Amino acid sequence: MIETVLNLLPLPSVGPPTTQSKRERAGQVARRASIENSLLAAVPRKEYRRLLAGLEPVTLTFGEVLYEPGETIRHVYFPGASLVSLLTLTDGHQALEVGLIGREGMVGIPLVLGHNVSSVRALVQGTGTAMRMTSAHFRKEFGLSLPLQQVLYRYTHTLMAQISQTAVCNRFHVVETRLARWLLMTHDRVKSD
Amino acid sequence: MLAPHTPKQNHLPAALPAADYERLLPHLELVPLPLGWAVHEAGGAQGYLYFPTTSIVSLLSVMEDGSSAEIAVVGNEGVVGIALFMGGETTPSRAVVQSAGDGYRLRASVLKTEFGQGGDLQHLLLRYTQALITQMAQTAVCNRYHSVEQQLCRWLLLSLDRLPLNELTMTQELIANMLGVRRQGVTEAAGKLQAAGLIHYSHGKITVLDRPKLEARVCECYAVVKREYDRLLSRKPAIVDPLS
Q1: How far is B91 from chain A (nearest CA, A)?
Q2: Which domain holds residue A96?
Q3: Of chain B residues 50-69, which have a CB less than 8 A from chain A?
Q4: B211 CB near a chain A CB, below 8 Å?
Q5: Fold for domain B7-143?
Q6: Which residues of A touch B (CB under 8 A)?
Q7: Nearest-5° angle of CA B48, CA B225, CA B50?
Q8: Any idea what the CATH number is for the domain that residue A122 is in?
C-alpha cells in the first residue's frame, strides 16, 4: 500500500547545482535523505514540506543505542540507508529481536500511540542515513496531519504483524530458516547486499 | 441473582468520560462469545470491534501448514479487532474464543467515526495497542527462552487477570495449541503445578489455589506485561500520558 502511494507521489525535485547558500544546500541534503524513507515519501508534498522544517539529517552508527526500555523517547527516527533493531531484554540481557526497521518504517512507535516511553531497546544494526525529529515536534505535527496519522497507524499495524510473526517463527522454526528470514528482511530494508 | 451485563465490565468503556460513554452505549451490542468461535480469521475482513467482558480471546499467528501459536490474550482489559482503527483492512492473526463468555461489539463504521474524532476513545484504544505490542513482543521472547511450565504459569496468570472469576474452562489440548507445544508437555507442567498445590485441574476446569506461589514460579514475562498494562491503562490517563 505504502509502495503504491509512493509511486503515485511526485518526488520533491532537486534542482541543478547552482550557487547556493549553506542553508539551501542543507535543505537539499535533507530532501534527498528524507525521501529515502517510504513513510515520509507517502505523506502529501505540502505536509511533507512542513515536516521537513523539524527533520534533521543524521548518520546512525552500528552499535549505537537509540532507546533503552523504560526511557523517555527524545527523538523519532525515519531510517534512510540505516537499519535499526528492536530488542526485548530478559533479566537485563539482550534477548531477542522483535522488530527490524529500515527505510520502510519509523523508530519511535510509542509516540504514534500517544506516549513517550520505549518498552524495548532500539539498536542500530546498519550504519547509514536517517532523519530524526524531536518527540515534542513530532507530537505537534502528528496531531496536525491526518495523512501522517493514517500512514503511521498503518505502519504500526504492519510492525505488529512482524512482531507476531517473530513469536511464531521462534516457536516453530530452526535456526537456519530463522537466519534466512532475518537476511531477507534485512535485504528488503536496506536494498543492498 | 446475577448482576446485569454492562459494557463497563470491560475496562475501556469503563474508563471513558460519561458523555462519551453515553454516546457509544446505544451502539454497544451484547453478544455471547462461545468457546472455539473465530472472532476473525487471518486475512479476513472485520465488521465489528469486540470488547470482551466475561470471555477471553486468543490472538493466534497461523503458519501455512496450519500450526498456530498464541501471540496475545485479550479479555476485559482490551479489544479484538485493532486492524479496524489502525487502518489495515485485514489482520494477519486469527482471533479465537479461548474461554467462553460474553462481550460487547461495536460496528466498524461507528468505531471509525468515533476514532476519527480524536477523543478519549481514540487515546484509550491507542494506549491499549501499545500495551498489546508489549504483550506480543514478550510472548515472542517467552516462546524462545522459557520452559513450558513457566509459559503455562504466564498463560494462566494473564488469562485470569482478564476474567472476573478465578477459574478457567480449558482442555490441555487447547492449552497445548495456544502455547504451540506438545500436549504431553502441558500435561507434565500442569501435573507439577497441581502436585505443588498451586492449581487444581479436573474435568477441563483449572482453578488457581495459590496465586502468590504461581507468581513466584512464573518467568519475568508476566510482570513485564502486567506492568505495561497497569502503566498504560490505569484510569488516570493524564498521568499515564504526559504528552496529551
Answers
A1: 8
A2: 2-190
A3: 59, 61-63, 67-69
A4: no
A5: Jelly Rolls (2.60.120)
A6: 86, 88, 90-91, 95-96, 98-99, 109-117, 119-120, 135, 139, 150, 153-154, 156-161, 163-168, 170-172
A7: 10
A8: 2.60.120.10
Q: For residue A187, what pLDDT band results from cuts at 50, 70 and 90?
A: confident
* Residues of chain A positioned with their CB less than 8 A from the CB of B145: 90, 95-96
> Residue B41 — φ and ψ, nearest 5°?
-95, 160
Element at A27 (helix H, strand E): helix A22-34
Please report, as a single letter, which amino acid is at residue A80: G
Nearest alpha carbon to residue A135 among A159, A151, A118, A119? A118
Closest-CA distance, B71 to chain A, in angstroms, reads 6
Task: Give per-10-residue mean pLDDT for chain B (244 aa).
Answer: 80 94 96 92 83 92 77 93 83 85 95 92 94 89 83 88 81 78 86 91 86 89 87 57 41
Among the partner-chain residues A111, A115, A170, the one whose CB lies closest to the CB of B143 is: A170
Q: Let me know: does B226 contact B159? Beta carbons within 8 Å.
A: no
Give CATH for domain B147-218.
1.10.10.10
Beta bridge partners of B165: none
State the sign of the Cα–Cα–Cα–Cα dihedral B149, B150, B151, B154. positive
Model pLDDT for residues A16-59, shown as the tens digit of each residue = 444 445 555 555 544 544 488 999 999 999 899 999 999 999 99
Residue spans of the domains in chain B: they are: 7-143, 147-218
CB atoms within 10 A of CB B34: 10
Q: Which residues of A touch B240 (CB under 8 A)?
A: 115
Whole-model pTM?
Answer: 0.81
If you ran DSSP here, which 8-state letter would residue B79 be given? -
